[in-house]
Design goal:
The chain has about 600 residues and is mainly α. It has helices at about 5-40, 55-80, 90-115, 120-130, 130-150, 155-190, 200-215, 225-240, 260-265, 285-295, 295-305, 310-340, 345-355, 360-365, 365-380, 390-395, 405-430, 460-485, 490-520, 525-560, 570-580, and strands spanning about 50-55, 195, 250-255, 275, 435-440, 440-445, 450-455. It folds into 2 domains: about 55-195; about 220-570, no CATH class. It is globular.
Length: about 600
């Protein structure tokens, strides 16, 4: 690979990781945080921001992209007719996209009808199909059923006929669904004098970001001008670059000069030519880089509190520095056990170990719990938001900040959530790996016996691995948001006691237990190794079964009608009394 090609590939990775993943997810987290808070507290959510446009213009903007997508799908289908036999993978993709486009279109239309009511005979027919949740659940089950049908018919003459039907009729069905849904929306939009584009309230986050750009940058007269302006950059930059060492997908292998033909074929067992890793910074000490860069965020908070020349800011900076140092120690010691298991500091090698054996959450469950608690504390969010406790020190270390400087501090917390979740996924949840999926495709095997396998193109495997990493990261981000709206704030003495007197000793105990177990297993010989390999395969089966159960349970839950239960009290005291009261403890610091 030439130097120019390597530069372009690196720029592409940076653009995806920072601009297309990390930053947008952090923005969506700000929206989800407000939305979840509005749901829990029964107040108006972030859905007020809107872009208004004439109804006819909105109708045109809806129809034109739909026509372009339909033309592209039909064009690709026409080109495919000249290429002979249809691969089974192409048939699976065509059928899945076609079915999903149909039920998603019906789902959106049914939701709209439920809000504004039935207006014509088509609305009557859609309403007769059931509520939108039922349409969504049945649609997901149909996609799964067709996928299972392809798997059962693999290797039989019928699968070729099924593939031909999917490839020939799938694009037409997709085009009809997209154009039909767009036409339905355009007809309804054209009747309105103006249309407000809200995008489920996500424009509110965009409006907040735009608003901070034009806000006045106020600096206290007695503050240190240079350090006051430098602190937000020191706090924001490290949390954005630490994800560079975390692989976000499986590698691409190119064994010939024809890159296109390489990615549409299954990956070879061993890559003998060029390997493109989906990782921005490939270094041996990747884990140390993460902690080295992430730890510099302490300096930004401390400098902001000192440079503002404000007693509340100073208290917030001291709290932030002591809190982040305390939990950085726990985070580092927690991962010692994982490093002992994996035998490396390279994060990509850790993921490959989990792919071959078992996910880190099974071999280091205590470390995962400890690391998750420390990561939440590092983000300085509830219940660990003492450095910016509004009820005690106004806004903490960024009390004297406004405009984009304030936004950098505020947004850095959400970026920290994403980066911490990405690292936890890589260390404990297998990274990009999904059970029974490797670089060659799907391979279901237990105890050396292969029950079913299906070769997949490289590009499809990489997209699946990328989607797995993103989905796991979003799950952990959502869990951190859920904790923010579930657990009340600690007192500061409780916060420090948790870090130094509970989490730290347990992390040291985890190191001891890991070493002891490793030593005992090393004395077992080959029989112990075979048992451990079988246990690792069983953990993969367990993950697959739990994932299938969650998918089925979600589909069944979607079939139930929505039920909203309000729980509203006029004060925190009445709420606490209704929930069983509160208890107080003596200061224990």
């Amino acid at each position: 690979m030439t130097l120019l090609t390597e530069l372009l590939v690196t720029v592409g990775k940076v653009v995806f990781l920072a601009l297309l993943f990390c930053m947008p997810v952090a923005v969506l987290l700000t929206w989800a945080d407000r939305r979840q808070g509005a749901m829990i507290q029964d107040r108006v959510g972030p859905n007020r921001a809107a872009i208004f446009m004439p109804g006819k213009l909105a109708a045109v903007l809806v129809v034109l992209p739909a026509l372009a997508l339909a033309a592209l799908a039909l064009g690709l289908a026409w080109l495919r007719k000249t290429e002979g036999d249809t691969p089974i993978v192409l048939g699976i993709i065509s059928s899945q996209i076609a079915l999903a486009s149909v039920w998603l279109t019906l789902f959106v239309i049914a939701g709209r009808i439920r809000v504004r009511g039935v207006c014509n005979t088509f609305d009557v027919w859609v309403a007769a199909l059931g509520n939108p949740r039922a349409i969504l659940g049945v649609g997901l089950l149909m996609n799964v059923a067709v996928l299972v049908l392809f798997g059962l018919l693999q290797g039989t003459p019928e699968v070729a006929m099924l593939c031909d039907i999917s490839v020939s009729s799938g694009p037409a069905l997709f085009a009809a669904a997209v154009v039909g849904g767009a036409t339905y929306s355009a007809v309804n939009l054209a009747r309105l004098p103006k249309v407000g584009l809200r995008l489920a309230g996500t424009l509110h986050a965009a409006a907040d970001g735009l608003k901070t750009i034009f806000k006045e940058d106020l600096v206290p007269p007695s503050a240190d001008q240079f350090i006051h302006g430098l602190a937000p950059f020191i706090a924001f930059f490290p949390v954005l670059v630490v994800l560079a060492v975390v692989p976000f997908g499986d590698s691409l292998c190119f064994n010939s000069a024809s890159f296109l033909s390489d990615i549409i074929r299954a990956a070879p067992p061993v890559c003998t030519a060029t390997t493109v890793k989906l990782q921005v910074l490939d270094i041996d000490a990747g884990l140390l880089f993460y902690f080295a860069m992430g730890g510099t965020g302490i300096i930004g908070a401390a400098l902001a509190g000192w440079a503002s020349n404000n007693k509340y800011s100073l208290l917030g900076g001291l709290r932030a520095a002591s809190q982040m140092v305390s939990y950085e120690v726990t985070m580092g010691l927690t991962l010692i056990g994982a490093i002992m298991i994996y035998g490396t500091l390279r994060i990509d090698t850790m993921i490959e170990w989990q792919q071959s054996h078992a996910w880190g959450i099974f071999v280091q469950p205590l470390a995962f719990v400890l690391f998750f608690a420390a990561a939440v504390a590092e983000s300085k969010r509830v219940p660990f938001d003492l450095p910016e406790g509004e009820s005690e020190i106004v806004a903490g270390y960024f009390t004297e900040y406004s405009g984009m400087k304030f936004a950098m501090f505020f947004f850095a917390e959400y970026v920290t959530i994403v980066t911490a979740a990405g690292l936890m996924v890589a260390l404990f949840l297998g990274g990009w790996h999904l059970p029974f999926i490797d670089r060659q495709g799907i391979r279901i095997a237990l105890g050396g016996t292969v029950y079913w396998q299906l070769a997949l193109p490289q590009i499809l495997v990489v997209l699946i691995s990328l989607g797995a990493f993103v989905a796991k990261t979003l799950l952990l981000c959502w869990l951190q948001l859920l904790i923010r709206w579930t657990v009340p704030r600690f007192r500061y003495d409780q916060l420090m006691k948790l870090g130094w007197r509970i989490l730290l000793p347990i992390s040291i105990l985890n190191i001891f237990l890991t070493g002891l177990v490793q030593r005992l297993l090393s004395l077992g010989g080959d029989s112990t190794t075979s048992v451990l390999n079988l246990a690792g395969e069983l953990t993969q089966l367990l993950v697959a079964l739990v994932g299938a159960w969650v998918a089925i349970a979600l589909a069944l839950e979607l079939l139930k009608p929505a039920h909203h239960k309000k729980m509203l009290f006029t004060s925190a005291a009445r709420f606490a009394e209704q929930m069983g009261g509160t208890r107080s403890r003596r200061m224990g610091a």
